[in-house]
Amino acid sequence: MVPVVVLDRADQALPLARALLAGGIDVIEVTLRTAAGLPGIEALAGLDEMLVGAGSVVTPEHVDAVVDAGAEFVVSPGTSAAVLQQSAQRGVPAVPGTSSASDLMVCAAADVTEVKVFPAALLGGPAHIAALAAPFPQMRFMPSGGVSAATMNDYLALSCVPAISGSWMVAPQLLREERWHDVTTLATEAVQGARVALG
Ligand code: 3PG
């Protein structure tokens, strides 16, 4: 379970991460969509028990900025050979967003076999991923975009889907209202649901 976070303020990062950890989630993707993203990553970099990644990374310069801030992996909405190259250069795993066989061919050429599928629900959901997995049996897919507690198990039923990502347990309103207990509850439910799906 990779929660995708859009921070309003950097000081939301630590209480949010603690709420997720209390719910059994020890990974977080902090997006660069707001000015608070980069300082939010910096704030979490010292939290050893949390694997901290950066999201919405679209340029090689973003890669440098988030790695300098302490990000341990980078996620992109699309596939960019330049971002993949810079991530490899900086020694961090990159999870590129893919929406087509062409994207997957770019990833395969860069020896990247763990990809995001974005926006997963609009692309066709699990059926889209199952179709693309056929010619790319080495690929592992993390659906993102429109995935919910109600649909996540449909994706996890696919053997090529080891992870899913989404924002429902870290919705902006929960952060704004500092509803950390609700974050923990939603994280707990998501983890329990995934465990059931994975047997
Ligand atoms: C995103 O880019 O925001 C992620 O893919 C999460 O999408 P979601 O908000 O639909 O869960």
Automatic annotation (TrEMBL):
Keywords: Carbohydrate metabolism, Lyase. It catalyses: 2-dehydro-3-deoxy-6-phospho-D-gluconate = D-glyceraldehyde 3-phosphate + pyruvate. Pathway: Carbohydrate acid metabolism; 2-dehydro-3-deoxy-D-gluconate degradation; D-glyceraldehyde 3-phosphate and pyruvate from 2-dehydro-3-deoxy-D-gluconate: step 2/2. Its EC number is 4.1.2.14. CDD domains: KDPG_aldolase (cd00452). GO terms for molecular function: 2-dehydro-3-deoxy-phosphogluconate aldolase activity. Signal peptide: none annotated. SUPFAM superfamilies: Aldolase. Homotrimer. Belongs to the KHG/KDPG aldolase family. PANTHER family: 2-DEHYDRO-3-DEOXY-6-PHOSPHOGALACTONATE ALDOLASE-RELATED, 2-KETO-3-DEOXY-6-PHOSPHOGLUCONATE ALDOLASE. This is 2-dehydro-3-deoxy-phosphogluconate aldolase. It comes from Kineococcus radiotolerans (strain ATCC BAA-149 / DSM 14245 / SRS30216).
